[in-house]
Amino acid sequence: MQAGRRVLVVDCDPQANATSGLGISPESVGRNMYDVFMSRVEGFPSVGINDIIRKTASGIDCAPSNLDLVGAEPYLYQIDTRAGVLNNALGDIRQRYDLILIDTPPSMGQFVINGLFAADHVVVALDSGSFALHGITTLSTIFDDMKQDLGKEIHVDMAIISRWGEGGTFGEIVPDQPEDTSFLGRILRIFLPGRAPTPEDVSGREERGKEGERLSMMLAAIRLRFPLVYTVPYSPEVYEAQKQGMPISHVAPESGAGKVYRTIADEVMKWT
Q1: Calpha distance 60→42 (Å, rounded)
Q2: pLDDT-based confidence at 188, cuts 50/70/90?
Q3: pLDDT of residue 176
Q4: Residue 192, Cβ neighbours under 10 Å: how many?
Q5: pTM exceeds 0.85, yes or no
Q6: Beta-bridge mates of residue 160
Q7: Distance (Å, whole) CA 75 – CA 68
Q8: Residue 122: which of 152, 85, 163 has the closest Cα?
Q9: Of 89, 173, 189, 241, which alpha carbon lies 20 to 30 A from 32's?
């Protein structure tokens, strides 16, 4: 939005993190994406995305969600063209925006399939936890099923790994320093002996080394699968931005995370 682009965020996640992250209380939204999806079910009123869009303080428009959206998924299985519900709903408003960002839930299901079917570009969001690679494998299965059943071939443009280094810098091992064998060094060791490392020091150092190796292997595996991979460092400013209901670009653009997200945004804007 700061670049002068017209942006809409479509929240297809019942957890509604994108909605609350833009300063909208999910409990007070009234009509939301639940109503848009349910419009395709016989007996429910017709509600278009244009009917639910809310403007936010950041200047970004939002098609909000709330927990009610969980109840829409079982009904979608009654619709033969269920994968295209979101794509059809977006038809009337695509020309109004330069960028439409679709947020989908972390669990696989009809909302993920709808988001993928409607998207021109795909960004995979991961965290640095141990199960990130398992999620990629599951996602690849979804891609294969969509190609076979719907004729839609999915190509991921970018992967973003968030909270990289949360809790400290992983794998940063300070090398052992060579012993000072000079006369002065020997005298200093006699009168100013250094503290011997405790078992906790040794254990902590080993754990950091193991975590560093795990992250390096994970990053290498992800880079083999996706053309662009960004690691977003852990930054407490992200949580402050979420509390304020504003993007980090508005709250802490010079934070570690803010700078990386600026680079990501610049890359995404090349797609338009």
Answers
A1: 32
A2: low
A3: 42
A4: 7
A5: no
A6: 125, 230
A7: 13
A8: 152
A9: 241
